[in-house]
Amino acid sequence: MKTSIIGYPRIGKLRELKFASEKYFRNEIEQAELFDVAKKLRLENLAEQKNSGLDFIPSNDFSFYDGMLDTAFLLNAVPKRYKKLGLSLLDEYFAAARGYQGEKGDVKALAMKKWFNTNYHYMVPEIDDDTVLKLSSNKPFELFVEALENGIKTTPVIIGPYTFLKIARYTGKKSKENFFGGITDSYIQIIGKLVNLGAEWIQLDEPCLVKDMSKADIEFFNSLYTKILENKNGIKIRLQTYFGDVRDCYNEICALDFDGIGLDLIEGKKTLELIDKNGFPSDKVLFAGVVNGKNIWKNNYAKTIALLKNLQEKSINTVINTSCSLLHVPYTVKNEVKLSDTYKKYFSYASEKLVELSEIKKIAETDNFITLSEYTANVALFAQARSGCNTDVKEKINALSEKDFTRSPEFAEREKIQKKEFGLPLLPTTTIGSFPQTSDVRQTRSSYKKGNISEVEYEKFMKEKISECIALQESIGLDVLVHGEFERNDMVEYFGECLDGYIFTEKAWVQSYGTRCVKPPIVWGDISRAKPMTVKWSTYAQSLTDKPVKGMLTGPVTILNWSFPREDISLKESAYQIALAIREEVLDLEANGIKIIQIDEAALREKLPLRRCDWNDEYLDWAIRAFRLVHSGVKAETQIHTHMCYSEFGDIIEDIDNMDADVITFEASRSDLTILDVLKAKNFRTEVGPGVYDIHSPRIPTVDEIKSAINKMLSKVAQSKLWINPDCGLKTRGNDETVKSLKNLVEATLEIRKENNL
Description:
With about 750 residues, the protein is α/β, with parallel strands linked by helices. It contains 28 helices and 23 strands. Helix content is about 40%, strand content about 15%.
């Protein structure tokens, strides 16, 4: 057997690419220095993979920002507004990723959405009627040659044509079918150039095959690859899928002239059934995704070997593969110097998964493998009882009844009560929660954590920041305020630190988008609230103003989805455990005079099954109920907000309405407020705040730009139900751009109120 991975992390073990890129954005380093950092990281990754004995080593899995954006530039799918800026190619690329505002123009970034069921965000390619798809970048070829010059013949990895066209955004009258010729010719050229460079394999990633496919989708996929595969010119092509199974098109895939097919046996619930029922072609290699690329727990060798033996008995030529790219896990457990071996022995990050692949290969090739030390040690580990059980929590879960998931009175009556309670103007203005996390904030938090300053000093500093934040918001003229969240390192990790059952890492960074990295906490045992988490900060902020200050919490589904979850209990049970803990905090905030409480569910859609038929049975039912469990016990006068971002919500908008929140804010500006049409069509009852400007870009929106967005909203949403707010929290922005943007937001709202006599 041979071993393979689909992709590898690219930010650097200590986030070197992030820091170098951000220095470049600030004009602190030249392009050449950024390129040097990137090359050093690529070569380190290649060396590690080669030294591990990996047989199929990928190239072109590196990106300065995002792989889909790379593919758009590879295929000339770059909107004219970026080309017209007259920037260097790299700066044009970053303008598409981040937006641009400067002497050469003012343009928004491309839309950004979640990558299937992960917390990674991709840039949505934008194709208009004048777009001519053609090969226009040398990146895959340059990186193949770079590896070759360092003694490694890699497998170039490229997003496949079907997935690219399927998830692109079409701004004109043309659809994906109109770009058939351009994209097939481009991939044929890519193959030809790689053949000339000496490549033996090419990996084409087609994750869209694990989603629902219509007959027309299957026919389009077949037509694309029939033409492309007629021009292989001797190179071997591997079709790679991940995040699910290919139940809609398995036989069609097997009938095409692929040399290898990558299938997910972790999240692909029907993958084995498809193989058992239909067989697997004897002339193809199965790249079997048996090592989980999305979670950090060690592989259970006994189960994996049994699965591989099953495939061997069917005489299937099998390569041991990861289930998806290792982009979604941290680099190495070796960086966790403070974490006890009691925990670490259960963990496997990207580097350790390379070792697992090597050990699984050795075990699979050994007749009497049960005596191998690698196998016996793994079996012994999984035989051990883990700590973390809490019988009180389990009893509370078992005692839940329907009333625990139902808030009273009904929404319409609560809405009337709350309008009277708060007396807010029409189109109330607010922010999503966090304010800029400046260097002094981060340094103070770090000093406190290290014990370099006392709790008294820490609290004094935080109260000063909160006081400044409240005063700033009042001077700007916002209607509903926030405390700024300066005490929080992360919207999930912060809460995890206040909950029993979580453990935390030191350097387990994972890329979320671009230069934004997160450090997901790990659900180790049963979850319960160890102590009040936010009451002290929220009540202090409220004491400083007569305006309402929102209590800010992260919801149970987002906390779970942005953590590395347990694999020994269901996601539903974990979500309910977290929901009970957050419920205690909600009731505590209410009892201490906080009348508006925002419970963010930014990641609600993230773990939604990729196939519609699995939605309610597997996810939506318990996810919505977990949120309702959090707030069902509050008074009618208490207003519950939630926030969601960077996902496609149109197809679950009725379910979102059933969360029974009082106000929901959405990310909407990057997608040109397309959610408004869905809200109108579905008679969305909940009050709503679609974001009027993009906070993931450094550009400052103008008053007229925001007014245009508000007027567009008013054409689709009743004025009595509309809130005005940015897309998301302001944590990653600078103070200057934040203040200017919020002042423009308030000024635009005041002008709209005046112009419409509101």
